[in-house]
């Protein structure tokens, strides 16, 4: 096993495109680290640089304390699991899993021992003589995992390994991979664009945007203490609702709505006192809004209902709030709300609101998030 250290890692392509900017953090020995972000954010590029499949334009990369900038992929003691599984179609499961050991020239007894152990762990024992064409997507993914496991590498690298699976199988496989990683206790770096996948699997998550690392933290801290507007909106599903607001003393004005912020909020966000009597960005997660007719609150706003999605255990209620809406990805995109910029709230299934209603919305004011409009960073 080994930790991975990234020191001011940069990637600049020949056309002067700067894909990664000063990536700088450590991945601990035995840690499950997830790189997450939208398409084109640089997460797969970072993974490929760790694997040695992309050259490093600047900075220093260490695996197990050894600088590997110029080390060939085969000598980095890592195993990679690809999105496409990359299985040999003409070989059996047994032959696919054993292939890297054969190439390494290991004795037959050692190959058989490692093969049988991996097959047992991944529940592939009864499938060893089948070829990939006769396997389901989940079974193929387990074979690809088995081929990585038998090598007993210092680190696993996984590039969106579940993206080819259907939704139900993805949920099953992400639990299996997370359990397997904890059982093996091998340093694992996992790339995904799915923030739910990142939150449920990673010990820590690195959120990236435009080649720049936004925040590295535990899933819970990313949710409850995001560093900036982008992280706040990217983590959580549905996304956080973001609006321009004005804080005057303890009174928050959101469009044509005003309510008092509890003193406790100013106690655990002391910098918020300095933000009084000025404009800021307020964030409200969907789960912190409900139908005031069912769950009254001291903080309530009115909003027109545009759509209700009944999901059985809850209702997703789309709302037009009369306040300037803030785009999480574009600092300059602050515009009056329109039908395509509706807020989303998680209502109790007992709510009777319908599209076209003007509803009273109960807001959990202690769970609000506040950001500086100039830097778009959190106010703590």
From TrEMBL:
It is an enzyme of class 3 (hydrolase). SUPFAM superfamilies: MOP-like (SSF50331), P-loop containing nucleoside triphosphate hydrolases (SSF52540). One of its GO terms (biological process) is carbohydrate transport. Its main location: membrane. One of its GO terms (cellular component) is ATP-binding cassette (ABC) transporter complex, substrate-binding subunit-containing. It is a peripheral membrane protein. Gene3D superfamilies: 2.40.50.100, Nucleic acid-binding proteins, P-loop containing nucleotide triphosphate hydrolases. Belongs to the ABC transporter superfamily. This is Sn-glycerol-3-phosphate ABC transporter ATP-binding protein. It comes from Rhizobium phaseoli. The gene is ugpC.
């Amino acid at each position: 096993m080994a930790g991975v250290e990234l020191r001011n890692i940069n990637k600049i392509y020949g056309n002067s495109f700067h894909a990664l900017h000063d990536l700088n953090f450590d991945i601990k020995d035995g840690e499950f680290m997830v790189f997450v972000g939208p398409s084109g954010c640089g997460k797969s590029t970072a993974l490929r640089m760790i694997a040695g499949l992309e050259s490093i334009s600047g900075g220093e990369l260490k695996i197990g304390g050894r600088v590997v900038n110029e080390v060939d992929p085969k000598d980095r003691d890592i195993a990679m699991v690809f999105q496409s599984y990359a299985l040999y179609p003409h070989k059996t499961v047994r032959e696919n899993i054993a292939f890297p050991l054969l190439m390494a020239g290991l004795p037959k007894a050692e190959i058989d021992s490692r093969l049988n152990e991996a097959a047992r762990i991944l529940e592939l024992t009864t499938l060893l003589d089948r070829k990939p064409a006769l396997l389901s997507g989940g079974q193929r993914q387990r074979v690809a995992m088995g081929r990585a496991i038998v090598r007993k590498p210092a680190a696993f690298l996984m590039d969106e390994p579940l993206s080819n699976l259907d939704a139900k199988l993805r949920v099953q496989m992400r639990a299996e991979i997370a359990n397997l990683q904890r059982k093996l206790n091998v340093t694992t770096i996992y790339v995904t664009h799915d923030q739910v996948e990142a939150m449920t699997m990673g010990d820590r998550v690195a959120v990236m945007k435009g080649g720049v690392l936004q925040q590295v933290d535990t899933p819970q801290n990313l949710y409850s203490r995001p560093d900036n507007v982008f992280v706040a909106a990217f983590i959580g599903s549905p996304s956080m609702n973001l609006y321009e607001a004005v804080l005057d003393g303890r009174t928050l004005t959101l469009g044509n709505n005003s309510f008092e912020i509890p003193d406790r909020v100013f106690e655990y966000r002391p910098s918020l006192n300095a933000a009084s009597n000025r404009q800021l960005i307020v964030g409200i997660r969907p789960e912190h809004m409900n139908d005031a007719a069912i769950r009254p609150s001291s903080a309530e706003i009115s909003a027109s209902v545009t759509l209700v999605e009944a999901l059985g255990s809850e209702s997703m209620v789309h709302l037009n709030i009369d306040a300037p809406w803030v785009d999480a990805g574009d600092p300059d995109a602050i515009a009056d709300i329109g039908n395509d910029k509706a807020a989303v709230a998680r209502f109790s299934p007992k709510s009777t609101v319908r599209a076209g209603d003007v509803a009273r919305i109960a807001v959990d004011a202690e769970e609000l998030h506040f950001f500086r409009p100039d830097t778009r960073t959190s106010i703590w």
